[in-house]
């Protein structure tokens, strides 16, 4: 993990309190691989109860502990894969994604295991992702490209996002992941990505229909020429639009924008207004 991950900034979505009948949507139980091991994630009460009822886990105080789970990374990964098969067969989690993701108790700690991406949200695991702000410098000021996610996208269907956003698979560096996603989602080749500029790392925790979503985002800025036209290769994006400062401010109020993307775009806007946008931002500081 890169050193500039310390410290990470954590932000939570603000939701109103709800009746007790809806509590499982907003309350999550911590889970461990072993009684004396670290907490690896947090899952909804209904999923925790299903695992315990089936003997896949057992209560451990307020939380729960997996049954028959090795503590070494390879052994725990195999146990989680068996658990994923069982949970998917019982319609408790989405189908397999085919992407292996690293599992860490905390973003700055060593890898404890790995699992298919479909396990990450339902089990409340930290997911590493990358975002690219595609910016076009003009005499009137910088413009910013946004992308509209397909209504069939697995997550955040029909919502606007940064130009590029995607997962950082097991074994990838943030830059490798950013370059891969840049080609798949926006048609950017290696030469066009040569100017990728790291802007920092931020950690978010928020509620989603699939569970507690915890993600560590590595942010990049990328200068693009005025004649650049994005092209999506993976089917997740249906529309691109380049916003100037005025229309971007209106879009932030009017358009459905992903929770994480809204924070990232807002940070980009503040940096253009208040800071030198060419100064490298490191650590979890998103204040400029």
Automatic annotation (TrEMBL):
Gene3D superfamilies in the cross-refs: Nucleoside Triphosphate Pyrophosphohydrolase
The Nudix hydrolase domain, residue ranges: 118-265
GO MF, one annotated term: catalytic activity
Top-level taxon of origin: Bacteria
InterPro entries given in the database record: NUDIX_hydrolase-like_dom_sf, NUDIX_hydrolase_dom
The protein's name: NUDIX domain-containing protein
Record organism: Cereibacter changlensis
